[in-house]
Fold these 2 entries.
Entry 1:
Amino acid sequence: MKSIGVVRFPGTNCDRDVLEMAEAKGFRAQYLWHLDQFDTGAFEALILPGGFSYGDYLRAGALSAKSPVMKSVREFAEKGGPVLGICNGFQVLVESGLLPGALVQNTSRRFIDDWAELELVNSHPYFGKSGVSKKIRLPIAHGEGRFYASERDLDAIESNGQVWLRYQSTPNGSMRGIAGVMNQKKNVAGLMPHPERALYSWMGGTDGWGFL
Amino acid sequence: MSQDADLKAKFKTYRINESEYKHITSLLGRPPQGVEWALFSALWSEHCSYKSSRVHLKKFGKTITDKVVTAQGENAGVLDLGFDEKVVFKMESHNHPSFIEPYQGAATGVGGILRDIFTMGARPVVLADYLCFGEPTAKRMPTLIDGVVRGISGYGNCVGVPTLTGQTNFDAAYNNNILVNAMAVGLLLPGEELALSKAKGAGNLVVYVGAKTGRDGVHGAAMASESFDENSDAKKPNVQIGDPYFEKLLIESCLSVIQKKLVVAIQDMGAAGLTSSSFEMASKGQVGMKLDLSKVPLRDAQMGPEEILLSESQERMLLVCEPGKLADIQKEFDIWGLDASVVGEITSGRKVSLWWRGECLTEIDPDLLVENAPMYERPYSAWAPKHQKASLPAMSTDAKTWDLKGQLGTSEHCDRTWIYRQYDQRVQARTVRGADHDVAFHRLPSGRGLAVTVGCRPAWMKRDARIGAFDAVLYPSLQMAIKGAEVQGLTDCLNFGNPERPEIMSEFVASVEAIADVSIALGAPVISGNVSFYNETLGQNIISTPAVGAVGLRGDVEDIPHDRFQEQGSTALLVSLAQVRTRAGLTDFTGELDGVGVAAKIKGLSELVQSFKASEILSTQMSGRGGLLLSVAKMSMDGVGLAIEAGFTLEDLSDEVLYQMVFEVSPAAEAKVQAGLKKLGFDVQKLGVTQGQRISWKNHGWSIDEMKTSAREGFGGLLDGIS
Amino acid sequence: MKQKFGVKIMPREVILDTQGRAVEQTLRLNKLAAESVRVGRFVELEVAGTEAEARKKAEEIAKFVLHNPLIETFEIQKL
């Protein structure tokens, strides 16, 4: 059985949460360290969890995007393997160029912790195959989650069906309310909300359960 | 300079007074020399030695029960929760640094309290804060509020520990001296190792890990007395800079070496840095230590031994290990990109010797510095209530009473979401209830709920320090009880003014006694704490503020009553143990608080609430500041209001009563809940029936939507000019 | 008349530069080790007046809000 690889950078802080989610869903899961390249054949999917990798210094995700592990992540993605970035993981994927656009500071210039109402615009073929409803509610927690791209790129992202999730009411100023996007091939995806924080009713919601 | 003038200058620089100097001279058998001045200055400071409070803090020793694994004396207290789960927690102040540089002051406050937790091998899981600001219109206040909140947010979010609860007060008494207290809670799960700071084993190595030593905080003493805006660069205080990213690396690496049983002892370098950590470790272990200061990793190569000893650079730890384990330890830290350097060894004698470039600077018995620190019994008088009256003045029906919308928009009552929205409340994926609730709940691996909340209401401290201190424990304990959680243990952060003033010392002693007494009655020991004296600026002292952090336990996390009314048509009950009564804006009060008597009923109350489903006891809330009507308004913020029975008087709705609680119960469970509460000795009255969108009483009515907007927008309005 | 100035804001020498330390670490891991890295900010200002007047104004602006004297220093450059 292949595993789910959970990529850890120094400063990642949702690594355990994501690993536990994968295990709760019946997967074998293992950590991948930022300094190590790995055998891409051993993994079914990769997840880059949230946190403050490299302290988010310089720009969120910028320093992590240059770490050795990303070479293997890129190789895995190029072969069509499913890669998911959550929150800071999304920022890393954007900084690596594996996903379009940029994630900049929230318009309020403050960190925002809240629950966000979301619309599933296009389904992801892997992340969500066990069922994500059209309208969902997930926690968000970020300071730099405002999705930015040029109008032309935004049009292309929309027309290619790359918009994954959209905020019902945008908390951070994201352009066109984008909360999650996919690459053109749709194997790589990223979102700012945290599915791993909405698995059981005691967490306040269960809409994250279907993402894996 | 004459010898006498030289000595006077030293007294000033090192903040040692003449009698302390004489005491040092007699302990050493000679006057202190060289770096010894710095050592005594640091370890005999109020901050490290608790010289004005130690004699009174002994009372907390009586609160210790057999659930306590370790308490005062270690970095934080540890409590056994059963199921092989242990909780570690402590609260600490960072008031003065936060007033100087609010962002870094608050951030390093959070960093410091987290280190106290993971030093013990426990992973930090919850943060809480207790903040007191001046009037929002006071000079610098919006900047201070904004900076402190950003500092807590910046540090806690990055390090990956959710900030789940807190309290924010405003009073003119804090205009020139804000309070920033942070509490951290950690867990030791089944099979996990508890680490202590007691050094052991001659020949073992002393290892320095974490950030390099810089000049941070070295001239901290100058901060208090000089204004820094206009000073030359050289005279500016060296603000301590926190790096939560580095702290996160330190957490992971330290927990790893502790859990792999590679360390003998470990201690963080907090106040007075290397000096306090090394001397305290040696003194606790009754061993000697040879420390080579030239081996300490430096950020600035020009630093001398005294600066190295006094530096308060953040994110550093000192550990002791067997020589054979050093390579494994270095390997572990290397994974996280951190250095671990040997700076000394444990020796068989009982002396700590400090070396610098091959020369021995001093050799000294650590007990002289740690155990023989002065202990002052500062003058105070026994507590006597000053504002207790036979009755309260009659109420006039002024417009303010009815202006719920206006009151909910004030700094005292407005919604604190503006603050908590900036804190990550769900990282670690264990949060059941966050800061938008009265009591925070973290789900333990055993499936039980760990409850956390903080207490101390300055308005009550102003009226009566003894009642206020009882309340600082009772209020959070009752908040927990009405959510079905039983308080297990306490920590405190005693913020007071100048202890050399007898009236302040009297309040201090009364507070400590009150906290200890209720703690014993609750069976909830005070397992850790901190004292912050001299919260005095230009002769103005703060309100005595003994902040309390409470940790409780509930058997499950599924049936916790909500904070706000849930359904129309349920019954609201007013549950009372009315003993003391006052009114917003009044200093006077009537009655007497039997703190121990109230405490004795709390366990039963939490068990009763826990025996009901969330469909039976739907919501509960304490009737708090501003009285019953305002509390009902706060309970209505989810859109379900209340038709209040006409039998209640204006006074009933306006008075603040210790203690009253509102329970929303389903009609089916009403009789059973009532009977249970009465059996416990509570007075129960029907307050009303819940209804949609409105609160009503006699011919008065209030729209929930309007109140909600006012409460929501209140906080932003306080911070004009800050966006 | 408009003058253009740059304001270079750097962490004070004695103060720990957390960003610089993180960048330094990444460079080291990628074998691009620099002896030291310090990260600051650069602000461009356009100010009206003669050069002397404008420089004075720029200095005032830098002191007023652009830098925090407790932890940073600044330097004005004519652009």
Entry 2:
Amino acid sequence: MKIKELLKSDAGFQYITDSMDLMSAAGRRAMLNATFCTSAADLEAEWDRLEEAIRATNDIPNRRYYIDLRHCLMCLHDLSGTFASLANHTPLNEVELFEIKNLCSLSRSAVTAIEGLGLTPTLPMPDCSEPFAILDPDHTGIANFYIYDSYDPELPTLRRELNALQTSGGDPMRISDLLARQSEIQNRVCVRLSDELHPWVGTLVKTMEQMAYADFLLARAELAIRWNLVRPAIGDSICYRKLVNPRIKQRNEEMHLRYQPVDIEVHSGVCLVTGANMAGKTVLLKSIGTAQIMAQCGMFVPAEEATVCLVEGVVTSIGDDQDEMNGLSSYASEIIKISNILQACRSQRMLVLIDEPARTTNPVEGKALVQAIIRILETLPSITLITTHYGQLGTDCRRLRVKGFVEGMENIPLTPQSINRFIDYSLTEDQSDNVPHEALRIASILGCDEQLISLAQENINH
Amino acid sequence: MPFISEILRHKSLSIVGLEKNTGKTVCLNYILHRMNQLGIHVGVTSIGVDGEQVDSVFATAKPEITLYRGTHFITSEKHYLIRQAVSRLVAVDDQRTSLGPLVTAEVLIQGKVLLSGAATTAVLKRQIQNLDSMGVDISIVDGALSRLSLASPTVTDCMILATGAAVSANVKQLIAKTRHLYQLICLDEVDETLRNRLNNIESGIWAIDSEGEIHDLEIASVFLIDRSEKDILRFGHTLFAAGAISDRLLKILSAKGKDITLIARDFTKIFVTPEVYVDYTRRGNRLMVLQRSKLIAITLNPTSPQGFLLDSKSTCDALSDALQTPVYDVKKIEQ
């Protein structure tokens, strides 16, 4: 699976890619085409390269090379169309030939910068001196281009005459003839140069791809430094110390709200997450999903310490999709999604994140469905996290409870804005089959209609 | 050699026409010719795509621009490939136009070139900076159609206004239309302190009270002005419109009272018809600008695209008299 497909399903990951400081359109394409990696060896190698890139980015004495390299990447143009023409023996025009010469020249500057940063083994670049030489017949070494006089023996005399006529206001008919002849020669030269460049098309494509990859790599390195990301270890379970959701952390900081990272460990099988409303269960699922995708897309993760267990994919049913437009009710779209998740898990090991399944239907059938989902997923090799408000599910799977409201805060006036200061988002192992009952209390904190709350309370008391 | 020495005091020049076929290109060729004689290193580009060899509206022959050795120019890939000058490519921009990417080249053997350029003033500004970094003495921007935005003092340092029979074959009307725009170009500037304070405001209509305090009138757009229930003049009679100024705004202000001073960013933001403007000023109101464009000259093309020909000398004289500024028929100067 490629990053561009993952972006459709994970809004948190979209925020990560949007935050990356890519210098070129080609670099952005390299990012979108990067794959969700399932091989431990490949991923370790990718993380090694990222670690090297982070070292180079932090290499203050060689800052000059870093700036040079990023500047080269900024000048990188996407030449895929030109390369396709070259591969198909379609003659290139002067502008396209210039672009190729410019790429060769850029790659030469990039190689110098990469060497200066000690990144040569990490970012090996093809040698473009041959195609550059084809486009630099006068050995100027400069990335300018035109159909040089030396490309054709007829050009120097023709242009001398043309120049004399043009500057003296000579015979327009003769000028017109000379221009036509020059045009013929130039076209012939373009065809010849395109033929000479044809064998180098692979080298040129590789050069552009490597530079685009360098752009993506440096952007990941810069992000890792900016957000204090950490290199995960690969293990049999998922384990984070102080896991953060970058998007929500950013939003909280903007609103001057506290952000509490969480510690969590999840193993194969099913783990239920319970806790009061507003205790951050949904955010927890999203954070775990985003971090898993980041790790397997060759990035470091937003935590202080991390172990990831490699999976074939991340499948989620987290209920903020707007499926009404497809003519499906929220229950219908949810149950279809869950059914697809079960199908996927039967053939592959997945990370499964389901937020409050069956909450939009009647509690009797809803609870039965949740029990069934748990039973099925327990037998499959996936790692599953399910949040729920249903109690007494009668399963012996592992349960984690978000601690929720801090005790002893009852008399402090709460507002919807300050509420997050009174919630402890950390998780605790829970042996009981019950769930917290704090819905009315939260409604009252949120300043909801008093009659509504008191009537509901009476209903419970009876 | 009229107005050339004046141009040399600036780093960038725009040539804008009151209408199509008012002789911008003739004027540009004249300037380029003179600059070449003086050995000035020129950079040339255009705004938008206006480089067709034959005018697509009236099917009249459209003169191409002659560029001389050493000139840097920016045009689209498509127009570059059909140039008659021999030139060397020095840069290709990632910015695409409908005619391919914009390319920058240096002329090796003089010849004719079709110019096309950036679609927006933001890109144009960057292109002018690029030309500047290539060491040109002056950048000249050929205007397209009746676009005036490039003549904004934030884009180019000075401007030439081209007018002519294409605007109106009736000399009186030609004078009236040219004078209207000329008046807007020549509006008085506010003082520097006020300019610095208003310069960074990007939208809305603002009032400046007698103490010099700036108040947001909380009108997001001129179109919402009559929805505003509060008196627009509650903070005094000096107003600043950060965006465009339309007939509608002037009419509302005319109805409100007199002694109003309305400040525009520059003349390219003012889109008012002569009648409404005259009515507005007759009531004792005035328009001012934060920054005034430096108008170097007005040129006249006496030929209209339909073939109508005005008398060059008498029309130039009549315009000069009415505007109290010199007006040139460039074709006549060259002869």
